[in-house]
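Example for tutorial group B:
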């Protein structure tokens, strides 16, 4: 295992954690005119400005603030059109439900493919084969799950099995509403299954873990606020990028623990076909997502502590900021998201059985 002190790695971030974290909307007028001559002949004439809504999960706020600014400059130079991007953030499962219920997302950048699949399964908002439309199964960046403890690690937490010790308060969001929480849950489950030898023993291990959870926030950012600003809990199970943002915001108050094993988290992106066709925004929405795969997009991804998925240059540039973790995949360990959702997160499945008996 590796112990990584977040305070040694990151600079100060002025405003990483806005208190209004539940599916708030952020609007950025992003395209000031660029100087110089640009070749625009490859694109049709566009209206003076266009607005996109990116519906995303909790911890991507800071990433998309910078990404949106870069994309708007790129699009303005290429087409002459200004872009205004609105952001909506919350628990990934809740965000998927909001799109299904009519939230007019042009693009969905959710925490996991299972939440994105729901957009096809409930209303055919996107095609079944949506993952084939962009490289790397429509996952332009990856992440993983780590542990965050208070400075000096006063409770001696080094790995997943420390989270079930009596008297340890664990902060993690609700896997019924949060994509990050599902990655957390499955990472703990697979650790226990490998160490203890069976799903039955893994289930009991995870049940013990959730008996140590005092509160379930609806999203990952809510859990970060509970831990960092409300001083709840001894350990936070967190997205890797969220853990490192804590280092930026709070300096030496927290340390990051790399567990012995974790899960390769693969957030997914897609245009929301029904909405972009109705609004006439398909061209800009598709280019917005493709921009995530460019060298510039991949560098922005790495800068915000996500792992670039496709650019070898960006992977090499940002490799040193990440712990060298032993990662398993959802497909290898759980048979993919459809199977994992049925067995663990559907109504009456393992999480409900565990939590109702808490």
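The residue assignment follows.
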């Amino acid at each position: 295992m590796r112990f990584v002190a977040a305070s040694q790695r990151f600079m100060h971030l002025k405003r990483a954690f806005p208190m209004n974290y539940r599916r708030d909307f952020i609007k950025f007028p992003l395209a000031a005119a660029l100087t110089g001559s640009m070749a625009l002949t490859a694109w049709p004439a566009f209206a003076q400005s266009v607005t996109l809504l990116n519906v995303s999960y909790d911890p991507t706020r800071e990433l998309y603030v910078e990404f949106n600014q870069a994309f708007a400059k790129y699009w303005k130079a290429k087409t002459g059109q200004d872009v205004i991007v609105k952001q909506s953030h919350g628990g990934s499962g809740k965000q998927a439900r909001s799109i299904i219920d009519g939230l007019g997302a042009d693009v969905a950048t959710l925490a996991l493919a299972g939440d994105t699949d729901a957009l096809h399964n409930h209303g055919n908002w996107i095609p079944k084969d949506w993952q084939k439309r962009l490289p790397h199964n429509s996952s332009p960046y990856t992440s993983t799950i780590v542990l965050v403890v208070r400075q000096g690690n006063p409770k001696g937490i080094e790995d997943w099995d420390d989270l079930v010790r009596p008297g340890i308060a664990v902060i993690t969001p609700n896997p019924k509403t949060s994509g990050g929480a599902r990655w957390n849950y499955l990472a703990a489950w697979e650790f226990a299954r490998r160490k203890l030898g069976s799903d039955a023993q893994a289930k009991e291990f995870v049940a013990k873990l959730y008996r140590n959870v005092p509160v379930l926030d609806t999203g990952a950012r809510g859990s970060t606020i509970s831990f960092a600003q409300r001083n709840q809990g001894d350990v936070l199970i967190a997205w890797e990028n969220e853990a490192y943002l804590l280092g930026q915001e709070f300096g030496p108050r927290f340390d990051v623990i790399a567990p012995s094993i974790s899960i390769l988290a693969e957030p997914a992106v897609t245009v929301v076909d029904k909405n972009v066709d109705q609004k006439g925004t398909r061209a800009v929405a598709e280019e917005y997502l493709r921009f995530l795969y460019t060298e510039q997009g991949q560098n922005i991804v790495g800068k915000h502590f996500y792992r670039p998925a496709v650019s070898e240059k960006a992977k090499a540039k940002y490799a040193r900021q990440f712990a060298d973790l032993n990662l398993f995949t959802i497909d290898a360990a759980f048979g993919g998201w459809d199977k994992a959702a049925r067995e663990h997160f559907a109504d009456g499945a393992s999480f409900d059985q565990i939590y109702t008996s808490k």
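Residues 145-265+324-356 form a domain with the D-Maltodextrin-Binding Protein; domain 2 fold (CATH 3.40.190.10). Compare this with the pattern of hydrophobic and polar residues in the output above.
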